[in-house]
């Protein structure tokens, strides 16, 4: 028994001795002091440009117009176990002309300087801009329809959070269409507003009444009045649609009476309620809308003789039913509509639509209700001033064209989608609905 114990002890001692005799590996420290990635935490345009030479490097980052250069956070990833100063996520002032020096230090103690500049992405030179407007066959085919909503004006799009698109219309025909593009006798109705919901290439029509006897989706309390749907926004699970109510005067002309906002459930598009917009002042609110990360912006339109006056209000997300703020000049916003001022834009601009590019705002609009020219203007802020006028397109159609609208969420391959309405004689449309329908073009983005 003792012999067995001795043998075990000897084996353990030998094993321990062998283990101790194994040479230790040297503690190698990582010499890599590289920056693997570096980008602005918000508003960066394009890729980071890095030029690295030996122990120093130059870094250039462009950001959107409107980003405060005196308080920028850079998110930095370094080589393993390397450090960087200023640190990743630290607020740094880049407003000066000289680069800001960042220093990386490897685990082994080797340092490298990185000269970082952040600049506002330069505005496009619109004198060299070529729109290259071309008809868009996909959307023109979408709106060549044979049932449901089949013709009308407006065609204002609203993107829903789930990717579907709502299309709002004014005066429209709903019903069946013959192969020769005439309406099927006894199977159509003229309504004053309607809606379609698009999912991919499938469109569903919404109206009141029945399929055999369609009526306007939104109806006024007074039966002699009518409602034209304007634009709207998606807000907290709802669809908020702006509309104007018109009443006939003693000459039979339609007169703008007031504005409403309908609130619909985006699941089934049933109308939850309709409320009166309390800011009339002879302004048609909701002609166009624009939404950013914080606010819904609501454009309003009034007339001054032959000129159009454009107004602008805003409301925070989820607060459209509360007090709006109105633009009051000098980049200020107030809650008293009587002290609000129009935005600065040419007097022949009609209801504007907006597309944002790199922190600049491009307004697409019609020259006026009787011109076939589609125009674009540019501003550094949503409230303007809008300048740098460019003619994008002159519609070739022999009939009147109007209501030019940009649809930002359908931008594709740096080509924005713009729609406009043909203003055909509503009585002649019974024989050919294509004289009163939306048409679509693609135009190069300005930047």
Could you say what the CATH topology of the largest domain is called?
Answer: Tachylectin-2, Chain A
> What is the C-level CATH assignment of the largest domain?
Mainly Beta
Q: How confident is the prediction overall: mean pLDDT?
A: 92
Alpha plus pi helix count: 2
| Spatial ordering of strands, largest sheet | 2-3-8-7-5
Number of domains: 2
Q: Helix/strand/pairing class, anyone?
A: mainly beta
Oligomeric composition of the shown chains: single chain
Low-confidence stretches: 1-21
CATH architecture of the largest domain: 5 Propeller
In whole angstroms, the N-to-C terminal distance is: 91 Å
Note the main sheet. 5 strands, mixed
Portion of residues in beta strands equals: over 45%
- Share of helical residues: under 10%
The radius of gyration over CA amounts to 31 Å
- Say how many strands there are: 32
> What is the CATH homology-level superfamily of the largest domain?
Glycosyl hydrolase domain, family 43
How would you describe this structure to a colleague?
With 447 residues, this protein is mostly beta strands. The protein folds into 2 domains: 35-120, Sandwich (Immunoglobulin-like); 126-444, 5 Propeller (Tachylectin-2, Chain A). The protein is 6% helix and 51% strand. The protein has helices at residues 2-21, 137-142; strands at 35-40, 44-53, 56-63, 72-78, 83-85, 91-92, 100-105, 111-120, 134-135, 149-159, 165-177, 183-191, 194-199, 202-206, 208-209, 214-215, 226-235, 238-248, 254-265, 271-277, 284-291, 295-304, 307-316, 325-327, 333-334, 353-357, 360-366, 373-379, 387-394, 401-412, 415-422, 438-444. The strands form 8 sheets. Strands 2-3-8-7-5 form a 5-stranded mixed β-sheet, with no helix packed on it. Strands 10, 11, 12, 13 and 14 form a 5-stranded antiparallel β-sheet that branches. A 5-stranded antiparallel β-sheet has the order 21-22-23-24-25, with no helix packed on it. A hairpin with a 3-residue loop joins β21 and β22. It is elongated. It starts with a helix and ends with a strand. This is DUF4185 domain-containing protein.
């Amino acid at each position: 028994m003792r012999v067995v114990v001795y043998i075990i002890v000897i084996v353990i001692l030998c094993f321990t001795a062998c283990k101790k005799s194994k040479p230790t590996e040297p503690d190698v420290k990582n010499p890599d002091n590289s920056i693997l990635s570096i980008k602005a935490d918000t508003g960066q345009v394009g890729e980071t440009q890095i030029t690295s030479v030996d122990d120093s490097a130059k870094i250039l980052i462009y950001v959107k117009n409107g980003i405060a250069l005196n308080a920028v956070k850079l998110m930095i990833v370094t080589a393993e176990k390397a450090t960087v100063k200023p640190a990743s996520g630290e607020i740094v002032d880049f407003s000066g002309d000289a680069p800001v020096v960042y220093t990386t230090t490897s685990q082994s103690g080797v340092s490298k300087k990185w000269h970082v500049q952040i600049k506002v992405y330069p505005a496009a030179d619109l004198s060299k801009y070529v729109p290259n407007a071309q008809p868009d066959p996909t959307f023109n085919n979408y709106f060549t329809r044979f049932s449901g909503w089949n013709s009308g004006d407006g065609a204002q799009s609203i993107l829903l959070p789930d990717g579907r698109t709502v299309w709002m219309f004014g005066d429209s025909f709903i019903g069946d269409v013959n192969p020769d593009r005439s309406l099927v006798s006894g199977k159509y109705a003229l309504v004053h507003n309607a809606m379609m919901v698009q999912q991919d290439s499938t469109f569903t029509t919404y109206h009141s009444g029945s399929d055999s006897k369609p009526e306007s989706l939104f109806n006024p309390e007074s039966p002699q009045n009518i409602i034209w749907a304007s634009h709207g926004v998606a807000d907290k699970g709802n669809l908020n649609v702006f509309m104007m109510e018109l009443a006939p005067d003693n000459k039979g002309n339609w007169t703008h009476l007031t504005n409403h906002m309908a609130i619909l459930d985006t699941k089934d598009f049933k109308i939850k309620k309709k409320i009166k917009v309390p800011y009339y002042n002879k302004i048609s609110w909701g002609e166009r809308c624009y939404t950013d990360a914080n606010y819904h912006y609501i454009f309003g339109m009034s007339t001054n003789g032959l000129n159009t006056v454009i107004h602008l209000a805003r409301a925070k997300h989820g607060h459209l039913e509360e007090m709006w703020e109105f633009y009051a000049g000098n980049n200020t916003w107030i809650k008293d509509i009587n002290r609000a001022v129009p935005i600065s834009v040419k007097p022949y601009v009609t209801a504007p639509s907006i597309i944002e590019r790199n922190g600049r705002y491009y307004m697409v609009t019609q020259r006026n209700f009787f011109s076939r020219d589609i125009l674009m203007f540019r501003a550094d802020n949503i409230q303007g001033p809008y300048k740098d006028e460019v003619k994008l397109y002159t519609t070739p159609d022999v009939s009147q064209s109007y209501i030019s609208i940009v649809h930002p969420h359908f931008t594709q391959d740096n080509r924005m989608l713009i729609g406009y309405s043909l203003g055909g004689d509503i009585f002649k449309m019974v024989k050919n609905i294509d004289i009163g329908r939306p048409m679509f073009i693609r135009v190069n983005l300005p930047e």
